[in-house]
Fold:
Amino acid sequence: MTDRMSIGIDLGGTTIKMAIVDRNGNIVDKWGIPTDTSNNGRNISQNIADSIKEKVENRGWKQNDIDGIGIGAPGFINMENGFIYHAVNVGWENYPLKDDLESKTGLKVVVENDANIAALGEMWKGAGKQASDLICITLGTGIGGGIISNGTILHGANGMAGEIGHITSIVEDGAPCNCGKTGCLETIASATGISRIATEGLEENPASMLHKKLNEKGNVSAEDVFTCAAEGDEWANKVIEIITHHLGLAIANMANVINPSRIVIGGGVSRAGDQLMDPLKKVFGQFALPRVQEGSDFAIASLGNDAGVIGSARLLFLKRND
Amino acid sequence: MTDRMSIGIDLGGTTIKMAIVDRNGNIVDKWGIPTDTSNNGRNISQNIADSIKEKVENRGWKQNDIDGIGIGAPGFINMENGFIYHAVNVGWENYPLKDDLESKTGLKVVVENDANIAALGEMWKGAGKQASDLICITLGTGIGGGIISNGTILHGANGMAGEIGHITSIVEDGAPCNCGKTGCLETIASATGISRIATEGLEENPASMLHKKLNEKGNVSAEDVFTCAAEGDEWANKVIEIITHHLGLAIANMANVINPSRIVIGGGVSRAGDQLMDPLKKVFGQFALPRVQEGSDFAIASLGNDAGVIGSARLLFLKRND
Structure:
């Protein structure tokens, strides 16, 4: 084998996404295995090791044809030594992921926060276009954030950097957030937040088409909001106005501090495309400093579910090049 | 001379502060010369060169006993090549500061934004206590901000990173800011902002002691607000509550994104000490994520006017060590 390969892993609470990635960031193979959260997640490393061994052997490669493993993991992580303090979804508590995975695979392992690997992937091969100052925001069930500054991931003092979802958007009487605070951006501009706001306003908007969605399915999704808005529904359009106001303001405030050249929006909500991006850019322009605005572009994430595994693999090359 | 020395320069619109700084960050000598803004500031480099030459010769040193010059300059700067696009206070427009100063002094020159050198100085020798993730906020006539992440200054895509003063605090009908926006933090928590808020509320607070200050001097200063608050004045205390609310919220939101280990508050307003810091920490605690809060300490800047020259000198050592 002439090209060196790396394994990129994006570890979620349900599925472990895995890929073989070459040094140019191309996915050579990708697959997934279920996340075994039994036994406090202590089978996971062995499952990963077995799966890699099988893939590598099937290709007729040797273990040492692989440069190593980059893995994005959830929870609170010591990035220096790959130690997981706490990862609720997976069951880990004070677990030396890096050491365990290295001993089970015989490969070098680099661990990173899962919120950051998508940013790294998008920077390397996606909408980030190799921008060395990048903010990546994932609008999904929650809101994830990753910041790349001067080409490196911002970790902060204890690995918490990039928590844009927990910027306070509503100062008084905001909705409760999973983090324990109230009024966080995540309670507004995540898929869950959009659904909540849309549903809560239905009583005051009896003519809204969203009532029909609620009656049909028992709930109103973020997707419903964008669909009905496109058909001219007044309340659905108002919901988009509300959420892009808070999201645009938070991004502008963050951009005044980070001064990114590129702002990448990903996650399920970003599938709304221009319906989301057009009002968002308008609000951003209102609250970002003129020079900050001049220096930055918006883009929708382009790698979809592959961002994590590509970013994880990149992580390994980065560390090696340091 | 056994110890290598550097020149640290903090260039302001009125005075050029200069110091000889050793490799441990100790000031060996410091002095100032007036900023000659005539001729579009084109005499400044020669004035600096002459002043350094005189100091060095008086000490019996040779020019090459000096490692070089670190200089913090105002305006929009290309940090890579030390080119000043625009520095209103000094008169520079498209001016190659680094090249000009190097040719006039024969010394290596490193140029940095003036808002960042104070952060670097405080990190190195002051209240920053060598924290590698640091936010430094200067509450003066305006609000300056410098962010150090992973030991290096955050510049962003076009040198605008750290503009915490232009985070939008009041979304609707905020006071106009010098930047062209409205409702910026600078319109609230700078000395100017505090004075404005205190004065604007006097009509509705006829019993406030601040009326006396206004009658005596024709204005109400930020210092007056803290003095009267300490004496129990209700409106003065309310003003402190307002400004620490907005400042604490902005810092918490920024900290959720940057995750600093240390937050240093400097500038004239910081002389209020605990009167400022106690309510500020309380608001911060309300809006920062628990782990962000755990990981960070507040401190008042300790180097005063020396932060800039010390930080500038550090800049040179940093670049050389890169």
